[in-house]
Amino acid sequence: MPTTGPAPQRKMRADARRNYERLLAAAKDVFAEHGVEASLEEIARRAGVANGTLYSHFPTRQALLEALLRDRMQALSDTARELLDLPSADEALTGWARAAMAHATVYRGLAVSLMSSIQDETSHLHAACQAVLAGGQRILDRAQASGVVRGDVTASDVYALVNAAAWAGEQTSRAQAERLLSFGLEGMRPPVGG
Amino acid sequence: MPTTGPAPQRKMRADARRNYERLLAAAKDVFAEHGVEASLEEIARRAGVANGTLYSHFPTRQALLEALLRDRMQALSDTARELLDLPSADEALTGWARAAMAHATVYRGLAVSLMSSIQDETSHLHAACQAVLAGGQRILDRAQASGVVRGDVTASDVYALVNAAAWAGEQTSRAQAERLLSFGLEGMRPPVGG
DNA sequence: TGCTAAGTTGAGACAGTCTCAATATATTTC
DNA sequence: GAAATATATTGAGACTGTCTCAACTTAGCA
């Protein structure tokens, strides 16, 4: 069962709180350098802490990732809400897709985690991914109501497209990721003259 | 520098040839069970051979993968040639994309290898991937000449789309992979009325 | 039959994950 | 402020995996 992770607000002992923050800071650096599959040992080392401490704060890699991404994923949900205010439902969708792809590109290897976590209910990232998906759903609903997207497209389709494009970009280039995203979104439009 | 791998036809000693074949057979099973990131130790174990023997036949995981996929990738190139005979350039393209995606789905994790190998000239899989890409190029040229695909689409776009869709399918479902592929291909069509 | 090039072996150096009994420290209580 | 207690940290150790290479074995030839 996924926990929310040790909420950083919880009454923690002062040293525990300090190590928690140090670990997050180290993880941020190490993930940025080596991607989300980086060595957890190195993160502990760089945080100046024994590896057992890392495991006691973050039982799994995904739990660490969740804590590290919490704010960012919250921001993505907020973005979805804001985009609903745009006059154009079409621009809201492409804007959301771009924002979601930018998010999935923050660390190398992140797209895999985001994609598998939406399926895996036991993942520490599951809830956050679902919130993102829910945001996408609202954006998509409006786009479909406006007739700019085919009715049979699902939020999962958009989510998969965004992450698949981000993944492709990791292997090749940012430009390639953007091209794939464009093709995919374009292909979701209703057939003309229908 | 990528070698073609020990060509199985090379005058090898009988025991070497036998172990080579056993390793390939074991790799096929183990990759099928655990994906292309499976333990090489287990492959050697299952082939009834010391792990040093595996490394002497296949210096890298990619070299092993290349030997294992050689025939299949050759077949994909042949398929491209055959599809050029189809009356419909459109059907040839979708047919090729489906065949390429099926290929990328043979083992879990394969899409990553295919995608990174096309970029990495030192990969043992590079040449084979380039051959596949060349096949896609011919199919694409014809589709563009027939006006069923936009002129600015590249073979790399199609290659990336196919692998990205295959990757998404690994994380979710075969159906999702097919949907993504359809959206992408659809989005590569020329805008109507242009 | 024996020689030699070719091939195989598996221990060992290394890096990583994860656990848990022993230890240390912060906080609470009196 | 000292003792009691709850909370954290530590790092050795069990495990799995990658990859190398000196010592050994054997196939195939003369």
Report a brief summary of the structure.
Chains A, B: Keywords: DNA-binding, Transcription, Transcription regulation. With 194 residues, chain A is an all-alpha fold. Chain A has helices at 14-34, 40-47, 51-57, 61-83, 89-104, 110-119, 126-145, 155-171, 174-187.
User: Helical content of chain A, roughly?
Assistant: over 70%
**Helical stretch count of chain A?**
9
Query: What's the pLDDT, averaged over the residues of chain A?
Result: 94
The parts of chain A where pLDDT drops under 50 for at least 5 residues are 1-6
CATH topological fold name of the largest domain in chain A: Tetracycline Repressor, domain 2
Number of strands of chain A: 0
Write down the overall geometry of chain A.
elongated
Distance between the termini of chain A: 47 Å
Q: Mind describing the biggest β-sheet of chain A?
A: none
Q: Largest interface here, residues on each chain?
A: A-B, 28 and 28 residues
Q: How many domains of chain A, as an integer?
A: 2
CATH level-1 class of the largest domain in chain A: Mainly Alpha
Q: What is the N-to-C order of secondary-structure elements of chain A (H for helix, E for strand)?
A: HHHHHHHHH
CATH superfamily placement of the largest domain in chain A: Tetracycline Repressor, domain 2
Broad structural category of chain A = mainly alpha
Oligomerization: homodimer
Strand content of chain A: under 5%
Roughly how many Å is the radius of gyration of chain A? 18 Å
